[in-house]
Design brief:
Layout (H helix, E strand, L loop, with lengths): L15 H6 L18 E4 L3 E7 L8 E7 L5 E7 L4 E3 L3 E4 L1 E8 L7 E14 L21 E15 L14
Parallel strand pairs: 2-9
Antiparallel strand pairs: 1-3, 3-7, 4-6, 4-8, 5-7, 8-9
Length: about 170
C-alpha cells in the first residue's frame, strides 16, 4: 500500500495525510470530489451586533468560523470596512480557521454604526495533475487561472451615551 502521509492521490500540493488531518476526505485523480478548488464557507451569524456605552468596557468579540468545503488550501484575507471594527487576525490559510470580530467605540459619539468585514479567498490554479483530466471543471480551468471568492459579515454597533453612576459616600464625623 501507499503511505497516506506522503501520498498525493488528489494531485494537489498537500498530501493525503495533511488533507485527512484537516478532517477532509482525500480524493483520487479519477474521483476528484465535488470541488477541485478551495471553497470559502462561513459558519455563524452573517451579522455581528454590538451595544456599548461610551464609558463602559468593550463588548465581547464574536467568532466567525471559516471552513473549506472544497479541495486544496484556503488562503483568505479579512478586511474591516471601518477603523472601529477590530479583528484578531486579518489572514489565514490551511483547511479552516476563524476570525474574532470586535469593536472599539473610542472616539465615536452615541449613535448606530454599520460596517462590514469582507473575507477574500484567492486561489491560483496549479499546473496539472492537480485537476483530473476527466473532471467537468478541468476543461474550464487552466493553470495560472485566478479564482477569487468573497464573503461578507455585516457589523452593527450601537453606541449609547455615557453610563451615569451615582456614588454614595459614607458620612463620617469625629
Amino acid at each position: 500500500g501507499t503511505d497516506p502521509n506522503n501520498a498525493y492521490s488528489g494531485g494537489g500540493k498537500h498530501s493525503d495525510g495533511e488533507v485527512m488531518a484537516a478532517g477532509l476526505q482525500a480524493c483520487s485523480p479519477l474521483d476528484p470530489g465535488p470541488h477541485q478548488t478551495p471553497k470559502l464557507t462561513l459558519v455563524g451569524d452573517n451579522t455581528a451586533k454590538f451595544t456599548v456605552a461610551i464609558n463602559s468596557t468593550n463588548a465581547p468579540s464574536q467568532t466567525i468560523k471559516i471552513i473549506n468545503t472544497g479541495a486544496d488550501i484556503l488562503d483568505w484575507m479579512a478586511t474591516p470596512s471601518d477603523a472601529w471594527i477590530v479583528l484578531d487576525k486579518t489572514s489565514g490559510g490551511l483547511m479552516d480557521g476563524s476570525v474574532k470580530i470586535g469593536v472599539n467605540p473610542n472616539g465615536l459619539p452615541p449613535g448606530h454604526y454599520k460596517g462590514k468585514v469582507t473575507l477574500n479567498n484567492t486561489y491560483v490554479v496549479p499546473p496539472p495533475p492537480a485537476l483530473a483530466a476527466n473532471s467537468p471543471s478541468a476543461a474550464a480551468l487552466a493553470p495560472g487561472d485566478i479564482i477569487t471568492e468573497t464573503a461578507e459579515v455585516a457589523v452593527e454597533l450601537n453606541v449609547l451615551p455615557a453610563k451615569e453612576f451615582t456614588l454614595y459616600m459614607p458620612i463620617a464625623s469625629k
